[in-house]
Amino acid sequence: MSIHPSSVIAKDVELGEGVVIGPFCMIEGPSRIGAGTVLKSHAVVGPHTELGEGCVLFPHSAVGLEPQDLKFKGAPTRLAVGDRNVFRENTTVHRGTEHGGGLTKIGDDNFLMAGAHVAHDCIVGDKNILANAATLAGHVEVGSGCNIGAFSAVHQFCRVGDHAFMGGFTVATQDVLPFMKTVGARETKSYGVNTLGLQRKGFSAEAVEALKKANRILFHAGLLREQALERCESELGTVPEVAYLIRFIRESKRGIHRG
User: Fold this and answer.
1) One-character DSSP codes across 43-89
2) Pseudo-torsion of CA 242, 248, 251, 257, nearest 10°?
3) Is 233 in a helix, a strand, or coil?
4) Are the C-beta atoms of 36 and 18 separated by less than 8 Å?
């Protein structure tokens, strides 16, 4: 373990084996920092925060501070972060709110580039990339394997499905479909299956082709939504990726960005 003498660490902070704390960092308690995690200079960890093992906080990143919510009155809400997450310069991740469940949660192996923001009560899965200045508003749910482009924003309470790709400067005010490319500023729409991205992740050719067919049925067959979903279910419902896509659409509360 290595702690620079200029850093300030509360007495009720639990530090795992091999933690490295650089100069001018601050860790408020109670919190827990997992083994092998590194805080570079000027990183800040707020109270009621759990960081997993092998995380890296770059200069001026701040995680676990109070939510930007006018209703927040100081409740001991939490931030829980998994293992091997990277928070580049000036990233911010806020704790949950009492009325929103009290927890902001980030899984494993996520990469948040400089200036990215995860707001209160967000639930983020594993292996996601938030590019520079990508922003998740409060209560957003992000699956796993997503790529959220630079300067993009996701409206509060929206969902981003597994392996979704959001182009840079995209503004999502409805749910972002899994496996698809979604691009746009104020007229955001789905642009079909993210074929190259899914191939790179090892999805089978059969799964990709089934998703392409489902996309055609959903958006280009002239059917009502439920008719299209029933046809997808009938013809392609045995393909796990299509079954998840159908379920994702049916569970949407804000609607989806259509093709």
Assistant:
1) -EE-SSEEE-TT-EE-TT-EEEE--S-TT------EEEE-SS-EE-T
2) -120
3) helix
4) yes
Question: Which positions are annotated as active-site residues?
Answer: 120-121, 138
Domains of the chain: 2-157 (2.160.10.10), 198-250 (1.20.1180.10)
**Helices 205-220 and 225-236, packing angle to 10 deg:** 160
Rounded to the nearest 10°, the torsion over CA 12, 15, 16, 17 is -130
Helices and strands: H and E segment counts in the chain? 4, 28
pLDDT band for position 189 (cuts 50, 70, 90): confident
- Model pLDDT for residues 47-97, shown as the tens digit of each residue: 999 999 999 999 999 999 999 999 999 999 999 999 999 999 999 999 999
Q: Write the pLDDT tens digit of every residue in 1-25.
A: 999 999 999 999 999 999 999 999 9
Helices (H), the chain: 195-200, 205-220, 225-236, 240-250
Retrieve residue 122's tokens: 């967000």
Q: What are phi and psi of 190, to 5 degrees?
A: -80, 135
DSSP state of 98: G
What integer is the mean pLDDT of 198-216? 98
Separation CA 196–CA 122 (nearest Å): 28
User: Percentage of residues in the chain with pLDDT exceeding 90?
Assistant: 96
Establish whether the linkage from the previous residue to 30 is cis, with ω within 30° of 0: yes
- Sign (positive/negative) of CA torsion 172, 178, 181, 187? negative
- Averaged over 207-236, what is the pLDDT? 97
